[in-house]
Design brief:
Elements (H helix, E strand, L loop, with lengths): L1 H6 L2 H20 L29 H4 L4 E3 L5 E4 L2 E7 L7 E9 L14 E9 L2 E6 L4 E2 L5 H7 L3 E7 L10 E5 L10 H9 L4 E15 L2 E11 L27 E12 L18 E6 L9 E5 L20 E5 L8 H9 L2 H5 L7 E5 L15 E5 L7 E2 L2 E3 L6 E9 H12 L10 H7 L8 H4 L3 H19 L7 H22 L14 H4 L2 H7 L30 H11 L7 H9 L12 H4 L21 H22 L9 H21 L5 E3 L12 E3 L2 H15 L9 H4 L17 H16 L2 H9 L15 H12 L2 H4 L5 H20 L5 H22 L5 H19 L6
Parallel strand pairs: 7-13, 15-16, 15-17, 17-20
Antiparallel strand pairs: 1-2, 2-3, 3-9, 4-5, 4-12, 5-6, 6-8, 10-11, 11-12, 13-14, 18-20, 19-20, 21-22
Helix pairs in contact: 6-12, 8-11, 8-12, 11-18, 11-19, 18-19, 19-22, 20-24, 22-26, 24-27, 26-28, 27-28
Length: 892
């Protein structure tokens, strides 16, 4: 039978099937006879089909005994188990996904309370695999190019997990195990490796969820992530050419520590906010993308201004409350004595919003001490107060809707070391030295969005604390202020307000403005009434130095306490309510005010960020003050000398901290380093103006006047390069103590090294390829009549060489500090003579020309007398230079 059936044609099998079916139906309709004619027996129950082993278990069965938190994605918890509920309506629907760092290890950039990356994401279901996908927003198209853009530019997979339950019968949603989030989604292990050069990995088996919260527009889960490395390698037997960082010092065992990730799933607004275009004459952060809908525009990049959604309750009123104010929650960890200063820094911005018709646009609220929510979630803009072993900065990043640039969240991180340091600097109980890379490392924990990168790297508070250190040393040395006095307390609070104003400005969408300090004249800085009413700069978004007067000068305000005219203007452009039909013309009208002197603007790139962007405009600086940055450098040199003289005259008193004098000494050097960089910018410098083409007739780039360039060159060669600027009494140097209670106690004060670092910063700037190229190109920017008196690269090289090696002409003894400087200059010459480097060809020819002249001067000097040290130094220098001049250049 089976054989015949297998070989039968399909139609035969079908006929057979129909016959069997008919027979079955007939038998079913004719009940069988019962024995003895009795009633029929009950029919046997039909067998249940076997269960599908691949079927998902019911929603109710999987969630049994779990407690739920209802929200955008509801969260179900039972003991350590956490489930996410995914409505099918949310599949393929974008939302904002962010990762913040709530807790960390407290050193080398690994700090708590830091905003992390954000991206527009969506859940996609592939079979029974749920994928968390980062949507690619860098390239966009709405029209016929939409499909080709989707094919050309891939999204990214953030995480994935299997579906854990069948759909809920009413809600049409399913459950997934949330443990897929217990992974290193933000890539923190890379930052750890950057900081420590150790291969830390996330240990999922010892990671868990520390907290969860859900509401209508939000689901947030805090994962306590365990990072570990199997072993700490032994240090090398011989020192490496590049010093290696130590393992983490702030944890009990450097092989193991925990970091808290705050994962936020936040709903994007149903109605996208109105966009506003960027204008380069002002500084706002932006959302940028490439628009591939059109191939007509010469530049198809689109830049959308970042701003909060701010709408009047009463659009017809001249002054109206907003429908939804911008609310900043002050962290419950902020010390009570500083809360009013923090609040004042927040609310100061209401002055700018009132000018454009908003009343109470910005609101400050205090997080209750018993609050059960973490303000690192994506719905509470906050001022976070955090601590660290080596930290001293504030930072003001934000998260935005990538579709429009609307700011949705911001978390300002304020290091407590800054406030505690304000008082600590006054009582002088620690040595404050420059941090090497923690600000850069802290920036790595932030978002890496293109337009927001400089907010992430804002180290204003750290640098301002060093400024304050210098200011307080001077004022105390003069007897103008005493530690723990009411004046000192007021100073501390003014510092905090200043920093908070700056960081809140970032979270409102404003970039740095490093030309604002040049608006206020030197005379106005000495007018207390003026500075109290107008501040010491045109913007709180500058890195403003402390307004410390020279002895005998009048005293204005020490730091910024109010918004400047630029701040009002930038807020007006971003937030002024404008009829969409008239927006283009009105925005152009607002931006056209850029020619007003008080509204001058320059960002981080103008001030210099390294590489080809060396900061060619000497008016764009960090931590200068007044309308003449060169005069400011001269003033800071005088203030540093005064500080050094006073601390030497004071001597050492019983009860002094052992590091007091050393700290004061280094404070003066730090200030000079900033000023020297600003002064060196004048040589080969160009002023840059941001006028749009055809709007003003002013040149976009204008060389610095030759007289000013020569003045800057002379101030550096006669001041900074002079040994007379750095003379200290032997009894002072010999009493620069160390702290014997500290393991890393240091040693003898390296005055020579401190002087060299200061001088070499200016020397490298003067001899840089960028400076050389601008000086060689200078004639092309000048009319024929102006070229005769222009400064040349030959003049600059000759001036540097003449100043550095002046003793060769005079026959004077060459002191150790001068020998150090000469060696460094010679090192740069010999490197260029033998390797060429990136200098233009004409610059290399001039280097050789001046090196030949220096060789002749060294030969003449070698025949003269002097100490053994001087004669040995001259002989060594002559030998090294002669070998370099004979060598063939090895171009790489």
């Amino acid at each position: 039978m089976n054989t015949k059936l297998k070989s039968a044609p399909r139609w035969a099998l079908s006929a057979l099937s129909l016959a069997l079916l008919s027979l079955g139906q007939a038998q079913a309709q004719t009940p069988p006879a019962t024995p003895n004619g009795g009633a029929s027996a009950p029919a046997a129950a039909a067998p249940r089909p076997p269960a599908d082993p691949t079927a998902l278990k019911p929603f109710a069965e999987i969630s049994k005994d779990f407690k739920s938190q209802e929200g955008l994605f509801s969260i179900w918890k039972k003991d350590e188990k956490v489930l996410l509920e995914i409505p099918r309506a949310m599949l393929n629907k974008p939302f904002l996904f962010t990762v913040n760092i709530a807790n960390s290890i407290g050193e080398r950039g690994m700090y708590a309370s830091q905003m992390g990356p954000d991206t527009m994401a969506e859940f996609r279901l592939v079979g029974r695999q749920l994928q968390l996908i980062a949507v690619n927003n860098k390239f966009r198209a709405k029209g016929e190019g939409k499909e080709s853009v989707a094919q050309a530019f891939s999204p990214s997979l953030i995480g994935a997990t299997s579906v854990a339950s069948a759909d809920h019968p009413e809600r049409k949603s399913f459950l997934v195990d949330a443990s897929f989030l217990l992974s290193d989604i933000p890539g923190y292990s890379t930052r750890l490796e950057y900081a420590y050069r150790l291969p830390y990995s996330l240990d999922k088996s010892n990671s868990s969820f520390a907290a969860t919260r859900a509401e209508a527009q939000l689901a947030t889960l805090t994962g306590r992530m365990h990072f570990a490395t199997a072993r700490i390698p032994a240090p090398p037997l011989m020192p490496t050419p590049v010093p290696m960082p130590t393992p983490p010092q702030s944890v009990p065992d450097p092989r193991s520590f925990f970091v808290d990730y705050v994962y936020n799933f936040r709903a994007l607004p149903d109605e996208p906010a109105a966009t506003r275009p960027i204008d380069p004459r002002l500084g706002h952060f932006m959302e940028s993308y490439v628009d591939l809908d059109s191939d007509v525009n010469p530049n198809n990049r689109v830049h959308l201004l970042n701003r909060w959604r701010l709408e009047k309750q009463d659009p017809s009123a001249a002054l109206s409350e907003p429908k939804q104010p911008i609310v900043y929650w002050m962290d419950k960890n902020i010390p009570a004595r500083y809360r009013k200063a923090v609040e004042a820094g927040i609310l100061e911005w209401n002055k700018a919003f009132e000018k454009i018709g908003f009343k109470n646009a910005v609101v400050a609220k205090q997080q209750p001490d018993d609050a059960n929510w973490d303000n690192m979630d994506a719905t509470h803009a906050s001022i976070r107060w955090f601590v660290g072993a080596d930290v001293g900065f504030a930072i003001g990043p934000s998260h935005t809707d990538p579709r429009t640039g609307e700011i949705l969240d911001a978390d300002i991180g304020m290091s407590d070391v800054f406030a505690r340091g304000s008082r600590r600097f006054l009582v002088e109980d620690v040595l404050t030295q420059g941090q090497s890379s923690e600000s850069k490392l802290a920036a790595l924990t932030q978002g890496w969005k293109e337009g927001n990168r400089f907010a992430a790297q804002c180290n204003y508070a750290h640098e301002a604390s060093a400024e304050m250190n210098f200011a307080m040393d001077i004022l105390e040395a003069r007897g103008d202020i005493a530690p723990d006095s009411p004046e000192a307390e007021a100073f501390v609070n003014s510092v905090i307000k200043d920093v908070i104003m700056h960081e809140v400005g970032h979270t409102l969408g404003l970039k740095h403005n490093f030309k604002a300090s040049t608006v206020v004249t030197r005379a106005q800085l000495q007018d207390k009434a003026f500075t109290e009413a107008n501040g010491i700069s045109a913007s709180v978004m500058d890195y403003n130095a402390y307004n410390v007067p020279l002895k005998g000068e009048k005293t204005g305000s020490f730091n910024n306490t109010t918004l400047g005219p630029y701040d009002y203007w930038a807020i007006e452009y971003a937030y002024k309510p404008i009829d969409p039909a008239a927006e283009k013309a009105e925005l152009a009208k607002i931006a056209s005010r850029s020619t007003e002197p008080q509204l001058i603007y320059a960002d981080d790139m103008d001030a210099g960020v390294g590489g080809p962007y060396d900061g060619m405009d000497p008016l764009a600086n960090r931590f200068d003050l007044g309308d003449d940055p060169l005069a400011y450098f001269t003033k800071r040199l005088a203030l540093s000398k005064e500080l050094w003289d006073r601390v030497q005259e004071r001597g050492f008193k019983p009860g002094d901290d052992p590091l007091r004098a050393r700290r004061v000494l280094l404070s003066g050097f730090q200030q000079l380093g900033r000023g020297a960089e600003s002064a060196a910018k004048y040589v080969g410098g160009m002023t840059a103006l941001r006028d749009l083409p055809g709007t003003t007739g002013r040149p976009a780039f204008q060389p610095i006047a030759p007289a000013k360039q020569r003045e800057a060159l002379k101030s550096l060669t006669s001041g900074l390069f002079s040994a007379d600027s750095f003379r200290f009494k032997p009894e002072f140097i010999s009493n620069l103590r160390v702290d014997y209670n500290e393991w890393d106690r240091g040693g003898l004060a390296d005055i020579g090294g401190a002087v060299a670092r200061l001088q070499l910063g200016a020397l490298d700037r003067l001899m840089s390829p960028a400076t050389a190229k601008r000086l060689l190109d200078l004639p092309g920017y000048l009319a024929e009549k102006d070229r005769k008196g222009a400064i040349s690269l030959a003049e600059v090289y000759g001036s540097i060489q003449g100043a550095v090696w002046s003793e060769l002409k005079t026959g004077a003894e060459i002191e150790r500090l001068r020998r150090n400087l000469q060696r460094e200059h010679l090192k740069r010459l010999t490197t260029l003579l033998t390797k060429g480097g990136p200098l233009p060809a004409d610059a290399l020819a001039l280097v050789r020309w001046h090196a030949t002249q220096l060789q002749a001067d060294l030969k003449a000097a070698s025949a003269k007398g002097g100490s053994v040290e001087t004669r040995a130094h001259v002989a060594e220098s002559l030998s090294a230079l002669t070998e370099a001049l004979r060598a063939s250049m090895s171009r790489v």
